[in-house]
Specification:
The complex is a heterotrimer.
Chain A (H helix, E strand, L loop, with lengths): L1 H31 L5 H18 L4 H29 L4 H23 L4 E2 L7 E4 L2 E4 H23 L1 H11 L1 H6 L4 H27 L1 E2 L3 H15 L5 H21 L5 H15 L9 H7 L3
Helix pairs in contact in A: 1-5, 1-8, 1-9, 1-10, 2-3, 2-4, 2-8, 2-9, 3-8, 5-6, 5-8, 6-8, 9-10, 9-11, 10-11
Chain B lengths: L2 H29 L7 H16 L20 H22 L6 H21 L1 H4 L17 H27 L1 H12 L1 H6 L4 H27 L9 H14 L4 H17 L13 H20 L23 H4 L2 H8 L20 E12 L2 E12 L3 E5 L6 H9 L6 E6 L2 E2 L5 H7 L1 E3 L12 H6 L10 H6 L1 H21 L15 H14 L4 E5 L7 H16 L3 E5 L3 H7 L2 E6 L2 E6 L1 H6 L1 H8 L2
Helix pairs in contact in B: 1-6, 1-9, 1-10, 1-11, 2-3, 2-9, 3-9, 6-7, 6-9, 10-11, 10-12, 11-12, 14-21
Chain C lengths: L7 E10 L2 E11 L4 E5 L6 H8 L5 E8 L2 E2 L5 H6 L2 E4 L11 H8 L5 H14 L16 H13 L5 E5 L7 H17 L3 E5 L3 H7 L2 E6 L2 E7 H6 L1 H8 L6
Parallel strand pairs in C: 3-8, 3-9, 6-7, 7-8
Antiparallel strand pairs in C: 1-2, 1-4, 4-5, 9-10
Helix pairs in contact in C: 3-5
The chains are: A mainly alpha, B alpha/beta, C alpha/beta.
């Protein structure tokens, strides 16, 4: 029983980071209509930027926020410089995905040239452990879980309670009509990339903290987990992605504990493939944005 | 062998093997539009299959590597098995990738499949020795020495490339290539003219898979080792980049692209001496250049170095020499009546042509969308050789009904009978083959094909689309193709569009696209045409011309169902009119009849 | 603002897609309280003209004036802030949102109180919508949907209303009512109404002034009734001289 509880605990901790990344990924897709595979390489970039700050004596949580802000700007610039113009030139959906993959390859290559292919570590950033209800968490894990909850809540309030949130929903639903309502859709898209870029940056640093050692493939590996979470939750559904993240996190920890650590990834990816086969629009897709975005025609 | 010579040999072998793979991926993605981002998995499957079939049993190599099965098959047998395994795997991916999702989402799903496959192979070390991979895979030319072995392999790969090219062209060019491109441009439109899109996808994935397997086997026979790091997802990207640079859908473009990207850039740079003291610089530089080239081409030249070409039809005078005005009517007649008699059972099962009777009946059709009943028990019949109008206010369920009649929408309940047979469960393409053909409200042309090709591709039961056609080639289908071409040309001239024959359909105006869609439907030799608001957005003169065509087609015994808003058009063309309101049939009768009925007046005509 | 000057005007407007010029120097003006209809055969450049005016495509040459101010190249969202209402052709609503959400989104630029008041005004104009406020627009009939689209555009109380083929895909009974109860009625309430319409006859019967576009040029600019009676009109639409 203790093992079960502890596995769930590990799963929640892992799931929190996955949720954070998945929510950013899914909102980015839902509002700007781009499946951005570069998201993975951006998380890697964030992890290395965090490392750079850490080596200069910056506190890890301060570094997390700063890196988040940097990635927010990088993401906006990326969309403005590459993806938006590409869409304007009439590139098809697959072309845009290929472009984001290519951008990810370039970024990853540059990172390897600059810092080498070897694994690095933030060192122990876990703090002391806290236990209760049979769970054992490190302070770092609790901070990350807390951070995820706070960002989720903030995003929820933004999307549902504010004028900007309404404008984001309008933009994702029908861009021309949104403009006819006087909504400056380009700014809304910028804002979307800013917010999701921030989440991407925070996730990258959080991943580095929780995985202990990492290398250039960090982001690409975890992006698959996040895609799994996003698909599970119904793509473009932030709350779905959060729950999907927890499910994927817990399931993969059980795979590791009861099968073999080597199968940790296999469990998560299998969930994803099964979902894609039987219910590709996700468990929580209630129509709405996702249906419009995903239909083939 | 000198270092320089070795370098050239290796690059040539890589070039040849990558080329086979790139051709395969181009067939799948460039020509047929299937975004198979897991393509490298098929290459890997071929390589592993070849390896375990030539390495001998697991125990025979001192137990330093583990894998399943193991045999000492001769080279050619192992090569063919590798192709077969990848082909089957490709077909399976083809079958399962059928959920109708946006293509970028499909691409992402395939990417995940690719990474998952790597993960599983790494995790299960008993399968093919995990991340360490397999080594000491025998070279088929091991009896030759030194440079003879190297150049011998080059010659063999070159020979196989030529062979593959000959086979590939049977699929990628000519009528079959045209068919695949039609499917790529618009799947629904392909279904509507009776093309079995599912089967086509499976065929394409099987052929592409076989090429992947061949490529993997040849590669591993040369380098002698194979591990998960050799088939990461990024390798699919290298192939994709080759295709994008060379020209999507152009087999010769792919040759150039493959020479530039995976060969010279990714593999080529590995042979450059290390610059400075950074060992990562050179290999990573290859990938970075690849990424930059991909983005650059997508931005500035998305059609690639050698763009896909469409055949320009030679200008030929149509055989019907009368002026356009007089041609109407009679020419359509000659067109359809010159067709071979429709094979059983469509005509022979019904009592004589022209005799009264119903060609189609729907009984109690219901369709729910998320609890809302768009169609709520519609029942009516369509008379043989008549034009039946389907009218009603917006949201009455006309288009949904038409979708259920043609098989594009699955009814929640109810029956559709065509020519006496229950077709409720049969898919859209099969109904189209029976002669029940629809058009779409928003015109859906095969954009990259020429206007003429749009028509030719719709010809039913073409020999070129059969297995015999692939094997027999032009000798088998050449004459028929010529006949179909002539028929398409006559149709174009009948609609006064002969000057647009060589124009790509996507460049036509809205009105021309509508005409083209109507002609395309006629090309399938239908018995019943379902037209979904064919005149929407057409100017009055074009509407009139389209109406003339409908009347001429009816003269030849064709039955037509017309969803239409313009009552003038309905009045002019329709023998019977079905009025739908709120998903039900409200009234059925002649237009004159309906005008006298007060409740119809109130519900619809007068508003 | 000159009291009698046109609310919306174009001078020598040249525009198109990519490098291809579609309209070649269009002069057009719409005054408040009048309904102006642009008609013409397929491919004449009617939609291109609207898109150029609304800042949805690139303008090669010429000017767009709103109340005498040069707004050439202004983006749609800016024009909306300056008093333009736009109802797109078919994809004209937020399908996946409810009716009240559509209207509220139309009042995106307003404060809460004004927005609520405007919703009331729109419902006065289209009382049918009152009982459908919580329905998803995607499930509504074409006529109701158009009311939502127009109502949404009216939320900002625009002085200029631009309709792109408002009757496309509507049944005949609705054609008349959309043109009469929506376009014409708005002109009668003092708005400047510009409308592109495929159903030339119906539009010309209600409009004050008409521009007949042929191959990207204004072939005729006259009171709508004159255009309707002009025998050349039939030529433009039915004759063989005009290519499809």
């Amino acid at each position: 029983m203790g093992v079960v509880i502890q596995t769930i605990g590990f799963g929640i901790a892992a799931g929190a980071v996955i949720s954070l990344g998945a929510v950013g990924f899914t909102v980015q897709f839902g509002i700007s209509n781009v499946l951005n595979i570069t998201y993975g390489a951006f998380m890697t970039l964030a992890a290395y930027l965090g490392y750079w700050f850490l080596n200069r004596g910056v506190d890890v949580w301060v570094a997390l926020v700063v890196v988040g802000l940097v990635l927010a700007l990088v993401s906006v610039a990326f969309n403005r410089a590459l993806l938006s113009p590409l869409q304007r030139r009439g590139a098809g959906f697959v072309s845009v995905v290929i472009a984001t993959v290519a951008a990810g390859i370039i970024l990853q290559g540059v990172i390897v040239i600059l810092v080498g292919p070897g694994a690095i570590t933030y060192g122990a950033q876990f703090g002391r452990t806290v236990s209760g209800l049979g769970f054992v968490f490190s302070v770092a894990q609790l901070v990350i879980i807390g951070l995820t909850l706070v960002l989720m809540l903030a995003l929820h309030l933004l999307l549902t309670r504010t004028k900007i949130g309404r404008a984001m929903r309008a933009t994702s639903t029908n861009r021309t009509v949104a403009r006819a309502c006087g909504i400056q859709t380009e700014r809304i898209i910028d804002l979307t990339w800013l917010l999701t870029g921030f989440m991407c940056g925070c996730t990258g640093v959080a991943l580095a903290v929780t995985t202990v050692t990492f290398d250039f493939s960090l982001g690409a590996t975890f992006l698959i987990y996040m895609i799994a979470a996003a698909v599970l939750g119904g793509i473009a559904q932030p709350y779905g992605a959060m729950i999907g993240g927890l499910v994927v996190g817990v399931a993969s920890q059980f795979g590791a504990a009861y099968w073999s650590p080597a199968y940790q990834d296999v469990v998560a990816f299998t969930i994803l493939i099964v979902m894609l086969l039987i219910r590709p629009r996700g468990l929580f897709a209630a129509g709405g944005v996702s249906r419009r975005n995903l239909s083939a025609t | 062998m000198t270092g320089y010579e070795y370098y050239v040999v290796v690059l040539l072998v890589y070039f040849g093997t990558f080329l086979i793979a790139a051709w395969g991926l181009n067939l799948e993605f460039g020509i047929a539009g299937v975004p198979n981002f897991a393509y490298i998995v098929l290459v890997a499957a071929g390589a592993y299959t070849y390896a375990v079939l030539t390495l001998g049993p697991d125990s025979s190599n001192g137990g330093f590597q583990h894998y399943i099965y193991g045999a000492h098959l001769p080279f050619v047998a192992a090569l063919l098995c590798a192709a077969a395994v990848s082909s089957i795997l490709g077909a399976i991916i083809g079958v399962t990738g059928l959920k109708r999702l946006r293509p970028d989402y499909q691409a992402m799903a395939m990417l995940v499949v690719s990474i998952t496959a790597t993960t599983i192979v790494v995790a299960d070390t008993g399968l093919v020795n995990g991340s360490a991979g397999l080594a000491l895979i025998p070279n088929p030319l091991h009896s030759l020495q030194g440079s003879k072995q190297g150049w011998g392999y080059v010659a063999m790969v070159a020979g196989i490339c030529c062979l593959v090219y000959v086979v590939l062209r049977r699929f990628s060019s000519g009528p079959f290539g045209r068919l695949l491109r039609a499917m790529r441009d618009d799947e629904d439109a392909a279904l509507s003219v009776g093309k079995n899109v599912v089967a086509l996808r499976i065929v394409v994935q099987a052929v592409g898979g076989a090429m992947a397997g061949l490529s993997g086997a040849l590669l591993v026979g040369f380098i002698g080792g194979w591990s998960p790091s050799a088939w990461l997802f990024i390798e699919t990207m290298a192939l994709l980049t080759a295709i994008i640079i060379g020209g999507l859908g152009n087999d010769w473009g792919v040759v150039i692209g493959t020479l530039i990207v995976p060969t010279l850039i990714v593999q080529g740079v590995q042979f450059l001496p290390t610059v400075g003291n950074n060992p990562e610089l050179i290999p990573q530089l290859g990938w970075i250049i690849l990424g930059v080239l991909t983005i650059g081409f997508l931005f500035f030249r998305p059609v690639g170095l050698l763009p896909e070409r469409r055949p320009q039809p030679a200008r030929r005078t149509p055989e019907v020499g009368t002026p356009a005005g007089e041609r109407r009517g009679t020419a359509v007649l000659s067109l359809v009546s010159s067709l071979p008699p429709r094979p059983a059972p469509i005509l022979s099962s019904v009592p004589g042509d022209g005799e009264p009777g119903d060609i189609l009946s729907v009984e109690g059709l219901v369709r729910e969308f998320g609890g809302v009943r768009a169609v709520d028990g519609a029942t009516f019949t369509v008379g043989r050789g008549s034009i039946t109008g389907l009218i009603g206010p917006n949201g009455a369920g006309k288009s949904t009904t038409l979708g259920m009649m043609s098989g594009f929408i699955k009814p929640t309940a109810g029956l559709v009978r065509f020519d006496g047979a229950d077709v409720t469960g049969s898919p859209a393409y099969r109904r189209a083959r029976l002669g029940l053909v629809r058009t779409f409200q928003l015109s859906r042309e095969f954009g990259s094909l020429t206007a003429l090709e749009n028509l030719v591709v719709a010809a039913p039961r073409a020999r070129s689309e059969t297995a015999l056609g692939i094997v027999g080639g032009r000798r088998y289908w050449g004459r028929e193709e010529q006949e179909i071409n002539d028929r398409a040309r006559q149709l174009l001239s009948l609609f006064q569009m002969e000057d647009k024959a060589g124009e790509r359909a996507r460049n036509l105006s809205g009105g021309q696209k509508r005409m083209l869609e109507m002609m395309r439907a006629v090309m399938t030799k239908p018995a019943l045409l379902l037209l979904d608001e064919p005149t929407a957005g057409l100017s009055p003169s074009l509407t009139h011309r389209l109406g003339d065509a409908c009347l001429a087609l009816r003269e030849e015994g064709l039955s037509i169902v017309l969803v239409e808003h313009e009552l003038e058009t309905v009045e002019r063309l329709c023998d019977t009119v079905v009025v739908m309101v709120l998903g039900r049939v409200f009234a059925q009768g002649s237009m004159a009849d309906l005008r006298t009925r007060k409740e119809v007046q109130e519900a619809y005509i007068a508003g | 603002m000159p009291p009698s000057g046109p609310a919306l005007e174009t001078r020598g407007l040249v525009a198109g897609y990519g490098d291809i010029e579609i309209i070649h120097g269009i002069d057009l003006s719409v005054s408040e309280g009048s309904m102006v209809s642009v008609v013409g055969p397929n491919g004449a450049g009617k939609s291109t003209l609207l898109k150029a005016i609304l800042g949805l495509i690139k303008i090669f040459d010429g000017q767009v004036l709103l109340d005498g101010d040069d707004v050439t190249g202004s983006r749609l969202e800016q024009l909306v802030r300056q008093g333009v209402g736009y109802v797109p052709q078919v994809d004209d609503v937020f399908e996946t949102l409810r009716v009240h959400e559509n209207l509220e989104m139309g009042g995106y630029l307003l404060d809460k109180r004004t927005r609520a008041a405007r919703v009331e005004e729109v419902l006065e104009l289209f009382p049918v919508l009152t009982k459908h406020m919580r329905r998803f627009v995607g499930t509504m009939s074409g006529g109701e949907r158009k009311m939502v689209a127009v109502g949404r555009a009216l939320m900002t109380a625009p002085r200029v209303m631009v309709f792109d083929e408002p009757t496309a895909g509507l049944s005949p009974a609705l054609v008349r009512s959309v043109l009469e109860d929506q376009a014409r009625a708005l002109a009668d309430r003092g708005k400047a109404v510009l409308l592109v319409e495929q159903r030339a006859h119906a539009a010309l019967e209600l409009a004050d002034w008409a521009y007949v576009l042929v191959q990207g040029n204004v072939a005729m600019s006259a009171p709508a009734a004159d255009v309707l009676r002009n025998p050349e009109m039939g030529e433009v639409f039915l004759g063989g001289t005009v290519k499809i």
